[in-house]
Specification:
Elements: H1 4-21, E1 29-34, E2 39-49, H2 53-68, E3 74-78, E4 88-96, E5 109-113, E6 118-125, H3 132-146, E7 151-159, E8 164-171
């Protein structure tokens, strides 16, 4: 019993250290804004269950595209909230591109998110891809609640190579 307590302390310290290293202690910022410029995405559409194997394949293909060109952030556009849609999702999975000049791989398309949309934008820097979505969604939900806004079915996630992760949630 005397040796159990120090082991628990050591494992807890190791766990907290890993969590801090991955950026778990960083707090995202969230603000109401209007999109100033259109966002151009290159990727593939998906409609189906969140746990569908094809959905995971689309993320892997987008990550491979990002790895080939580090300037392109991963970008996912969701047209509905999977939690309220009984685990069914409509999405566009890919990367954010500066223009439509590049030749796309087979099956990929361009998608434009128009400017002038009212959104709550949540941003965080230096957080692992594993932790960023949970932190960003929580910050955006909190800002929507505090400002008494109504969500619209529009979610744009960006996970950049420059360590800035962003979530834009459409609001009324």
């Amino acid at each position: 019993m005397r040796f159990f307590f120090p082991l628990v302390l050591i494992f807890t310290a190791i766990g907290l250290s890993i969590y801090a290293y991955l950026g778990g202690l960083r707090t995202p910022s969230a603000a109401l804004e209007t999109t100033a410029a259109p966002v151009l995405l290159a990727g593939q559409p998906f409609r189906g269950k969140v746990d569908d194997a094809r959905f995971g394949e689309l993320f892997r293909e987008a990550k491979q595209r990002q790895d080939a060109n580090h300037d392109l952030p991963l970008a996912n556009l969701y047209y509905n909230d999977p939690e309220s849609a009984h685990d069914s999702i409509r999405a566009f999975v890919g990367v954010r591109v500066p223009d439509s000049a590049a030749v796309l791989p087979t099956g990929w398309r361009y998608r434009v998110v128009p400017a002038g949309r009212r959104v709550v934008a949540a941003r965080v820097r230096g957080v692992s891809f594993l932790l960023a979505p949970g932190k960003l969604y929580a910050a955006a939900q909190q800002a929507i609640k505090e400002q008494k806004l109504t969500k619209q079915p529009f979610y744009l996630e960006q996970f950049g190579a420059d360590e800035v992760d962003e979530l834009r949630v459409g609001v009324k």
